[in-house]
Amino acid sequence: MADWLMAILLGLVEGLTEFIPVSSTGHLLLLGHFLGFQSTGKTFEIVIQLGALLAIISVYFKRLWTLATRWPFDAEARRFLIGLLVAFAPAVVIGFLAYGFIKTVLFETPLVICVALIIGGVLLLWLDRMNKIPAYLDADRYPFRVYFLIGLFQCLAMIPGVSRSGATIAGGLLLGTDKRSAAEFSFFLALPTMGAAVAYDLFKNRDVLDFSDFGLIAIGFIAAFISALAVVRFLLDFVSKRGFGPFAWWRIAVGVVGIIGLAATGAL
């Protein structure tokens, strides 16, 4: 496959999967494994995540601007920002302490990704069919306990294949949120979490970063931005009407196909 086609494909996969509960990292690692793609210092894989992040910022720019300018004198805006920080805090601590193990062991084991995809899909199916009356309908007004516990659930996504959005949404549903607000809060929590993760990855890999393929990185970045923009715009309405079942079945299918592929290539 031509390099530019591979860049487009990987960028589209990043954008399409970053904010739905199927694990963008798992998809990228598995696809990269089977395509034989690996950039020096993971530069390509790190930078294209910024394209997906830019999609969130563009869709929610007005609301983010309101939060940024009104928090000093608006109690509601201040409370939501504090809630985001509370939810973000566990990932900072655990991510910093376990960074080496995550990157050198978990990220290098495709079988772990496949198993995590399947288990996560089964759990998501169970949660989607759970007849639980939601207690919290507005992501701006979750109790701080709920914010913190969702943050702990997010840390499960440090296992590739679990899915950051999937973990936060599942945690929210278990804690009594409705599907729409859980998905929306996952969007907002992505901003500090992904931003910090990308910055830390770039810092840790600063000695081996290679931007010689800037054109390919730019192609992947644009593809990730466009596809993520489409996902963010339609996802809330989709999950309100259809739930998370389609994503759960997709996870299971990808995990099973991945295991078959690993077995066929002798990589198990």
Keywords:
268 residues; mainly alpha; 0% strand; Undecaprenyl-diphosphatase; undecaprenyl-diphosphatase activity
Explain what the structure shows.
It catalyses: di-trans,octa-cis-undecaprenyl diphosphate + H2O = di-trans,octa-cis-undecaprenyl phosphate + phosphate + H(+). Its main location: membrane. Catalyzes the dephosphorylation of undecaprenyl diphosphate (UPP). Confers resistance to bacitracin. It is a multi-pass membrane protein. One of its GO terms (cellular component) is plasma membrane. The protein is mainly α and 268 residues long. The protein has one domain (3-264). The chain has helices at 3-17, 24-35, 43-59, 61-70, 75-104, 110-128, 144-154, 164-174, 179-204, 214-242, 245-264. Helix 5 (75-104) crosses helix 9 (179-204). The longest helix has 30 residues, at 75-104. The model has no long low-confidence stretch (mean pLDDT 86).
Q: What's the number of structural domains?
A: 1
Number of strands: 0
Q: Based on Cα principal axes, name the global outline.
A: globular
Protein structure class: mainly alpha
Low-confidence stretches: none
Count of alpha and pi helical runs: 11
Q: Which percent range describes the beta-strand content?
A: under 5%
**Proportion of residues in helical segments:** over 70%
